[in-house]
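WARN retry 2 of 3 for item q-0093 after timeout on previous attempt; input resubmitted unchanged.
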Amino acid sequence: MLDLIIKNAHLENGEKPVNIGILKGKIDSISIHTDASAEAKNTYDACGQFICSGFYESHIPLNKACILDRCSIEEGTLDEAVQNQNRCTC
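OK item q-0093 returned
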């Protein structure tokens, strides 16, 4: 049994809506045809909307965020980077 089925979703190059099966947080199946035998704990109808991966990045490279020159790097540790990020705001 799948955890989630997202029905009627459009992919990047897809002409027809697809059903996307999710199991344990990962895509398990993508099918054009409705599989009447597929069971899931939850379903979501995308109503023909485009579906894609998230448009975000979970980290901030200090040199790309233009704040590196305002931060000191002495230890090179994660804790130091977090402290610098908290101090160096725009």
